[in-house]
Amino acid sequence: MIDFYSQALIYLESVQPSAPAWLEQIKEDGLAQKVPIIRDDMGVFIRMICALRQPETILEIGCGISYATHWMLLGSPRSRVVAIDSNQQRVEQCKTYLEESGYIDRVELRNCWAEDFFKDNHQYFDLIFQDSTKKGYAGMIDQCYQCLKPGGILVVDNVFFNGKVFGLTPDQEKKYSNGVVSVRAFNEKMAKHPGFECSFLPLSDGILVAQRIR
Ligand SMILES: C[S@@+](CC[C@H](N)C(=O)[O-])C[C@H]1O[C@@H](n2cnc3c(N)ncnc32)[C@H](O)[C@@H]1O
Question: What is the pLDDT of residue 113?
């Protein structure tokens, strides 16, 4: 018996307009190369957040090959994005796609570790999209808070770790228990953080939307 959530996903895929063909192509390339990219329901969601908020400045932590960057720019084409990734090959591919789509002038691409970026960053952002390695999420909370403008929004993908935060089967224990501990620690720290108002959404692989409230 298929559960409510899976049914909703299948139904929404049939009614929701798909991405433009050029963006579908970036997705196809990513899937073919086994490069991690956001799911389409996350893409639709982050585009809507950007359309509603029209952030002047966006920080994307873990931009990969630009799939999510493009979803955000579809929602708010005038935003300026700082897009970071530690993987040089992906950053180069990201640049090529941004040149092809015509959005390259809106994006400052940085091939570095987010942790290093934060060490000498003096910019403030209206929106931060955190989509890097889950085990690093908790360690970047303070840096994200510091460089978010008051009222700004932090959106985080994969806070359910493909369902693993709900519990692991015995054969998953060895491989995933450290990751689960990290993601749970992140979720709990965010939920209790006095500077953020949080909403955990059972969309995609679990999305956290947090607003800086002080
Ligand atoms: C899930 S992928 C990003 C997918 C991308 N947001 C998209 O949907 O197209 C995660 C990316 O984060 C990068 N990454 C992981 N940890 C990082 C860190 N600490 N600093 C910078 N980049 C990181 C990886 O190289 C990888 O390309």
Answer: 98
